[in-house]
Amino acid sequence: MITSREEVTKMIVATKITQGFTWKQIAEVIGHSKEWSTAACLGQMAMTKSQAEAVGELLSLSDEAVAWLQIAPYKGSLPTEVPTDPLIYRWYELVNVYGTTLKELIHEEFGDGIMSAIDFSMDLQREENDKGDRVSVVMSGKFLPYKTY
Amino acid sequence: MITSREEVTKMIVATKITQGFTWKQIAEVIGHSKEWSTAACLGQMAMTKSQAEAVGELLSLSDEAVAWLQIAPYKGSLPTEVPTDPLIYRWYELVNVYGTTLKELIHEEFGDGIMSAIDFSMDLQREENDKGDRVSVVMSGKFLPYKTY
Amino acid sequence: MITSREEVTKMIVATKITQGFTWKQIAEVIGHSKEWSTAACLGQMAMTKSQAEAVGELLSLSDEAVAWLQIAPYKGSLPTEVPTDPLIYRWYELVNVYGTTLKELIHEEFGDGIMSAIDFSMDLQREENDKGDRVSVVMSGKFLPYKTY
Amino acid sequence: MITSREEVTKMIVATKITQGFTWKQIAEVIGHSKEWSTAACLGQMAMTKSQAEAVGELLSLSDEAVAWLQIAPYKGSLPTEVPTDPLIYRWYELVNVYGTTLKELIHEEFGDGIMSAIDFSMDLQREENDKGDRVSVVMSGKFLPYKTY
Amino acid sequence: MITSREEVTKMIVATKITQGFTWKQIAEVIGHSKEWSTAACLGQMAMTKSQAEAVGELLSLSDEAVAWLQIAPYKGSLPTEVPTDPLIYRWYELVNVYGTTLKELIHEEFGDGIMSAIDFSMDLQREENDKGDRVSVVMSGKFLPYKTY
Amino acid sequence: MITSREEVTKMIVATKITQGFTWKQIAEVIGHSKEWSTAACLGQMAMTKSQAEAVGELLSLSDEAVAWLQIAPYKGSLPTEVPTDPLIYRWYELVNVYGTTLKELIHEEFGDGIMSAIDFSMDLQREENDKGDRVSVVMSGKFLPYKTY
Amino acid sequence: MITSREEVTKMIVATKITQGFTWKQIAEVIGHSKEWSTAACLGQMAMTKSQAEAVGELLSLSDEAVAWLQIAPYKGSLPTEVPTDPLIYRWYELVNVYGTTLKELIHEEFGDGIMSAIDFSMDLQREENDKGDRVSVVMSGKFLPYKTY
Amino acid sequence: MITSREEVTKMIVATKITQGFTWKQIAEVIGHSKEWSTAACLGQMAMTKSQAEAVGELLSLSDEAVAWLQIAPYKGSLPTEVPTDPLIYRWYELVNVYGTTLKELIHEEFGDGIMSAIDFSMDLQREENDKGDRVSVVMSGKFLPYKTY
Amino acid sequence: MITSREEVTKMIVATKITQGFTWKQIAEVIGHSKEWSTAACLGQMAMTKSQAEAVGELLSLSDEAVAWLQIAPYKGSLPTEVPTDPLIYRWYELVNVYGTTLKELIHEEFGDGIMSAIDFSMDLQREENDKGDRVSVVMSGKFLPYKTY
Amino acid sequence: MITSREEVTKMIVATKITQGFTWKQIAEVIGHSKEWSTAACLGQMAMTKSQAEAVGELLSLSDEAVAWLQIAPYKGSLPTEVPTDPLIYRWYELVNVYGTTLKELIHEEFGDGIMSAIDFSMDLQREENDKGDRVSVVMSGKFLPYKTY
C-alpha cells in the first residue's frame, strides 16, 4: 500500500532516470508547460484524472499511484529551511539579498499587497550569450491588494 | 560616529519617507536600474564614489555616510531565516515549492551547475491585465557549469 | 529621527495606555473595523493619508510618525516562530492541530488552491453563553485556485 | 503490530484516496461535524468505541487499528514549526500578522485570559461571491479568564 | 516615555534588589499569594488598578508605570526555548522526561483533554526533611475535556 | 534483534492498547507508584531485574526486551524542543510563564541552588470540584544548594 | 539605575582589563578558589554580602552593583546553543563526542542517576610536559541516584 | 550489506546488553582504557585492525562489521544540539555555566589558544565520600597556542 | 528499485570499505583528481556516462546505480547546519573565525563580488614538517564581480 | 567605559572606512601577514602589547581600547549559523559540499585525527587568469592525530 505522496514522487524520479525520459517529454504527455508539469510530478501540484493517467501510462505507474497524483499534496519540496543544494540556494540568496528590494518596488508601483504565488506562472529559457549562456526566468503573478474592511 | 552600514540604510529609508522621494527618483540620480539602485541603497550592493556622492547629495547624507556607501556590505536583508512579511514570504514559498523544479529544468537544459546570483540582473514591471494587473519579474543569470579538475 | 515603523507602534501603544483610549475609539476615528484598524496601528497594514492623519491627531503624533504610518510595513507581529504568549499560542495550536483538517476540507470543497490571507476580513465578537461567554471569530478569505499553465 | 497512531492515519488517508471516500461521508458515519471528524481521523482527537468501530467498518481497518483510534493521540499535525504548505502557511501567516491584534481585542472585550482551543468548535463553509467564492470559517472558543489566587 | 512592559519589570526588580524588599512583602501589599503576585510583577499577569497602585506606592513607581501594570502583558518570561538557568531547566527537564507520563495518566483518569494553565493555581512550600529540606510545589488546574461538535 | 529502547517502549504501548491494560494495573505489578511506573515503561527510568520481569510477564515481552528494560535509557520523551501536544504544551507554558517566578521564590526561601529533578517524586490526583474537576499534581524535589569551594 | 546582572559583569570585566587585575587576585580577595570566584564574577554564582563587598572595594563598584552581586543570577554564560568560540567549543565537542561514553561508564559504575552540576567543584592546573604543557581539569560532582517512589 | 557505522554501534550495544558484558571487559580485550574503548565502540574513534578483530571475536561480529570498526567514523554521539538526557545535559550545563570561566582561566594561565580535544585523555573514577560518593573525572588536553604568521 | 542518490553513495562507501579500495584508486579509474572524484562518489557532483561506468565496473554496481551517478544530485553532504564531526567542524570554525577576514581581504583586492564555489578546484597535500606534518589545501576559485545593471 | 571587544572592532572598522586605510597598511604596522592582522583587528585574535599600541597609534584609539586588543576575545565573527553574506556563504557551501570529501582524503592520507584550526596559517593571493582572475587561498594546518590512551 502506498501511504504517502513522497513515495510516488520517488517512483516517478527513479523511473525517469533509469528509462531516460526528459521532463519535456513528460510535459508533452501531460499537455502543459514543462514548469508546471515538473512541479506536479515532484509533488507540488494536483493533477486532473486524465493528466494523472497519462503520466501513469508513460511511466507504468500502478492505479494506486495514479490516484495519489490527483490529490492536493502537502507542498514544500526542500528538506531544510535554508536549502543546501547550491543551485537552489542561489534562489534563496536572491530572496535574502533582494527581498526588501522586491518589497519596496512592488509597493511603489502597486501599493500595499502581495504578488500571488498561486495565480502565478513561470517560464524558464536558455538565453544565448557570447560570454556564456544565461538562464532567463520570467515570473508572473497577479497583484493582490490588501483588503480594507 | 557611524559604526555600521545598517545605520546608513535606516537614514536613507527615513529620509525617503519623510521627504517623499521614490526609488525611481533615487535610481535616476544613481544612473542605474531601479532594481539595482534600491538594492544598493538597502545595503546589498557597494556603490562607486560618484554614485554614493549623488545619493548623498539628494538625501543630504554626511560625508561619513557617503564613505560607508562605498564599502561592500555584509549582505542579507531579512531578519529571519523564513521571512515573516507576506510579500517576501511568497518569494520564499516559490523557492520552497518550485526549488526542485528549477533544479530539474536547469540541469535538463544546461547540465550540472548553477544560475549565478552575482552575474545577475532583474527587471520588475507592471503587466496590465483585465482580471487584475500582474507583477512580472524577469531574472537573468549566467549559467556556471561545475568545473571538473 | 524615527528610523523604523516599530518605534511608531511603540508610541501608539504607550499613548493609548497612558491616555486610556480603546481600540474601538481609535477605529472610529480611522473609519474602519476595529480588527483592521488595530492591525494597522500595530504595524501590519498601511494607512491612507487621511487615516494616518486622523490617528495622528487623536494620539498627538508628529508629522514624521504620520508619514511612517502610510508606508507598507515589514509585517509579522510576533517575536518568535512559536509564540510564547498563551492567548496567541492557542491560535498557533489551532493551526498545528487543525492545519491538516483545514487543508483537507478546503480541498474537498474547492479543489487545489488556498484561502487568501490578503483578500481577507475578520470579525471578532463576544458570544454570550450561560456556561461562560465565548469568543467568536469569523474569518473570510477569497479562494484562490492554483493556476495551470 | 501497529506501533504508532501515525500508521493508522496513513492507512485511513491511503484508503480514502484509493477508494474515493470524502471526509463528509466519513463524518456522517462518525455522526459529528466534518471538521471534528476529519481532525479525529488525522490523529488529533480520540474517538469513542462506537465512533472508531464505525470508521473501522467503513474503511476496513483491523481491530488493532480500531483500538488505536480510541487513544488520546500525541497531537500536532504538521512536520515543521513553520508550515511549508501554502494553504496551511496562510493560517500561520494570519497568526503572525494578526496575533497581536487578536490579543488586544480579546483583552479589550474580556480582560486578561485566553480563548480556549479545547472547548472550541469550528465551521467551514463556502461563501458564494461574484468576485470569486470565499472560504468562511467560524471559530468559537470559550473565554477563560486568568484565575487570581 | 515607557514603551514596553519589560521596562517596568526591570524597574521593579532593580528597586526590589537595591531597597531589599522580599516578594512576600510585595505580595502582602497586593493582597494575593506570593506565587501570583511575583508572576504579576514579573510581567506575566495583569493587575487591577488598586493592585497596581499598591505596588506603585511601595516601590515608588511613576503613574505611567502603574498604568502599564494594568495591561495584559505579552507573556513568556524566558529568553530561550530551552532555558539555560539550571533551576528553571530542571522544570523543563521534568516536562521533557515526565511529559508523556503526565499525558498518559491524565488521559487514563479523565479522558481526552488538558489540564488548564489558566484556571490554575500554584503553592510553593519548604518541606523540612532530615536528609535535606525539599521544595514542595502543588499545582492545581481545571480539567478541560475536548469538545465534540 | 532489538537495537533500541524505543522499540521496547513502542511494544509496551501497543500491547497495552490492544490488550486493554491500564497504567495502574501495570504499576501494581511493578510495585511502585503509577507515576514512576509509567515513566519507567515509557523509557525514562531503568527497572530492576524483578520489575522488568514482572512487566515482561504481564505484557508477554521477549527476554531480549526484558534485558533492555534494565538499562538506564537515553532519556527525553518528546519529539521537539517545544512540545506540540496541547496537554504537554500546557506544562511547557507553565515553565515559560512561571519559570522566573519559581526561580525567585525558591531563591527567596532557600538561597542559590536548585530543586532536584532526580531526588524527586510526583503524585497526580483527581480533585473533585463543583465547577469541574481539577488535576492536582504534587511535586517534591530535594533542594540542592550550590557548593562553594 | 542598574537593571541587569549582565551590566555588572561587563563593569567587572572592563575594570579588570583596564586596571590589569588577574582572576587569581580577585579570587584571593573573595577567599575562594579561582574557579568559583571567576564564575561568580561572570554572573554564574551568587556572592555573600562580604564577598560582594570585597569585590566591590577592589574594583571600585557602586553600592548598587554590590547589591546585584548578591542575587542568584539567571545563569548561562554563552550567547548561542552551540558555542562559536574555539576554546569553549572544544568543551562542547567533548560533550558531543564523549557524552554517551560518560553516560555508559557512570551508569556501569553507579547505576541510573546523574553526576551533580550543583554539588560540584572544579580545579584547573597547568601540567608541565616536554611535548607541550597540558591543561588538566579535575571535575568532581556528587552522584545522585534516581529516586524510586 | 552494512551501510553505516551506526548499524555496527547498535549491534555492539544490543549484544552487550543481551549477553551481559561490561565496558570494562570489552576494554580489556581492546587493551586500552575503558574511556577510550567505550568511545571507540560507540562510533567516536577508529580502531586498529587487531583492536577491531578482538572486539569482533568477543561480540561475534561479522567480518564486514569488523572492517567498519577500522574506519574513522563521522563523530558526534548525540541526537540533538542540546542533549535531553539528564546525565549528559549536566555536562552541557557545565559548559554553559562554566564555559566563560574555563576560557578566562586558561587564557590567564596560558595566553590565547585552546585545550585540545584531540590530544586528550580522560579518566573517570568513583570517589568515596561519607555524604554520598562522587564522580571524579580528570580531563587532560594539550594546550595549543594560536600561531601568529 | 533505487529511489535516491544517497543509496548509491552508501553502496559505494560500503563496497570501498569491505573491499579495501582507496579514493586514489577510484580517482584513477575516473581519470580526475582525487578531490573531484571523491566528491562525485559522495554524491556532490554528476559524472559523465564513461566516468560512471568506470566506477560501476570497479565497484560492481548495478546499471541502475550507474544511471543515478550521471544525475546532478541534490548537494549538501552534512547532516546538521553546524557539523558535529571534529575534522569537519574545524573547517566550519575557520569560516566562523576567518569569514569576515576573507570577506575584507577579497574585497580589498578585487572589489565587491564573490569567489566562485562552482568554477573552483581544490588540491590537498601532505606537507612534511619536523614539528609534525601539516595538511596543506590550495583552493582556487574564479572571482565573480557583482554585475551593475 | 568600553564594555566589550565588539565596540573596539566597530571603532577600528569605522575609522578605517572614514580615513581610508587598507588592511595591508594596518598589517604593516602590526608586522604580520594581512590575513592574521585583519582577523586580529576584527576581534578573532589577541594582540601583544606592542602590536596593540601600533594599531592604536595608527587609528587614534584610546588607551582603554588598546587594553582590550590584548585580551583573548570571544571568537566567532558571524551573526548567524548559516552566513547570509554571499561571499562568506560560498565558504560555508564549500564545507557543506566538500566536507565529507575533506574528511575522507585527510583520513586516507593521515589516519584518524584533524587538521588544526589553531596551528594554522592562511595566504590569500590574486591569481591572474585570461578567463578572469582567480582567488587563490592556501591553508595550512598541522595534522593532529587522535590520542589513544
Automatic annotation (TrEMBL), chains A, B, C, D, E, F, G, H, I, J:
Record's catalysed reaction(s): cyanate + hydrogencarbonate + 3 H(+) = NH4(+) + 2 CO2
Pfam families given in the database record: Cyanate_lyase, CYNS_N
Record-linked SMART domains: Cyanate_lyase (SM01116)
GO molecular function, one term: cyanate hydratase activity
Domain spans labelled Cyanate lyase C-terminal: 77-149
Keywords, in A-Z order: Lyase
Active-site residues, as the UniProt record annotates them: R90, E93, S116
Gene3D superfamilies reported for this sequence: Cyanate lyase, C-terminal domain, lambda repressor-like DNA-binding domains
InterPro entries: Cyanase (IPR008076), Cyanate_lyase_C (IPR003712), Cyanate_lyase_C_sf (IPR036581), CYNS_N (IPR048564), Lambda_DNA-bd_dom_sf (IPR010982)
Listed EC numbers: 4.2.1.104
Family the entry assigns: Belongs to the cyanase family.
Annotated PANTHER family: CYANATE HYDRATASE
Described function: Catalyzes the reaction of cyanate with bicarbonate to produce ammonia and carbon dioxide.
Protein name, per record: Cyanate hydratase
Source organism (scientific name): Agaribacter marinus
Gene: cynS
